[in-house]
Amino acid sequence: ALRAAPYDPAVLDTCYRAIITQKQLGFDYLRADGSERRYTVDVFGVAILLPKIYIVARKTGGEHLQTFLLHKIRHAWLENRPAHVPEDFSLHKWLADGHMEMYVDPSDRALHDLHLVFESPRPGLIEDLRESPIAEDQTLECDTDGRWHLSARVRRTVQLRHWLMSVADVAYIDAPDIIRNDVMSWAERLLNRQKGC
To answer: Taking CA 161 as the corner, what is the angle to CA 159 and CA 171, rounded to the nearest 5 degrees?
Structure first.
C-alpha cells in the first residue's frame, strides 16, 4: 500500500485549524537545497494524493494557488489575520480541473473520450468502478456477451496510464488511439528496461 512520507501530525492539525477558523497559516518550509523558508498563506485545502499530502494555499499577496508538501513543513502556527478564501471555492472542482495532475504530454491537457472493454473483470473490479468512478461522467454497461464497457472523458495523466496498465490483463482500450499508444509505449519501455536494453 502507498504510504505518506512521515510528517508531524501537529502540522496537519494546525492546517485544519487554519481552515476551520479561517485564519492565515504561517510555517517554515524545507526547500530542495536544504534551507528553510518562512511562508504566510491562506489555506484553501488539504489534498491527499498518496503517497503525498499537500497543502493547497495562496501566499500572502500572491495571485495563484500553490501546493506545499506536508512532510516538508517543519513548524506551523496560526496567524492573527483572517484568511481570504472565496466562499465559492471548491477543492474538489479545482482538483478535478487537473491542477495537480502530472500529464503524459504537458502540452495536451484536453479531455479525451476513453472507451475501455473488460472481457473478464477481476472480482470486485466493476463494483469498485461504480463506487469510485475514474471520471464524473463515467458510464458502465454490460453487453450480451458479458463484457463490460466503460466510457469516460479523461485527461492523459500519468495516474490514468498507471491505472490502465494495472487492468491491462482483463481489459483493452478500444479508443482513443492516443491513450492506447501512451500505454503501449510505456509498456514497451518497461519491457526493454527489464531486458536490459
So the answer is: 125
pLDDT band at 2 (very low <50, low <70, confident <90, very high): low
**Ordered domains of the chain (ranges, CATH):** 9-96 (2.30.30), 112-195 (3.30.70)
Question: What is the torsion angle, in degrees rounded to the nearest 10, for the CA atoms of residue 126, residue 132, residue 134 and residue 140?
Answer: 40
Q: Mention every residue, 6+ apart, whose C-beta is less than 8 A from residue 164.
A: 116, 171, 173, 179, 183
Distance CA 170, CA 41 (A): 46
Contact 44, 59 (CB under 8 A): no
Q: How many CB atoms lie within 10 A of CB 83?
A: 20
DSSP, collapsed to helix, strand or coil, labels residue 145 as coil
Q: How far apart are CA 122 and CA 20, in angstroms?
A: 42
Q: Which residues is 112 bridged to in the sheet?
A: 154
Cβ-based neighbour number of residue 86 at 10 Å: 8
Q: Does residue 70 contact residue 55 with C-beta atoms inside 8 Å?
A: yes
Task: Give the Cβ contact number of residue 153 at 10 Å.
Answer: 14
- H-helix or E-strand spanning residue 161: helix 158-166
Enter the pTM of the model: 0.65
Say yes or no to pLDDT of 9 above 60: yes
Length of the chain: 197
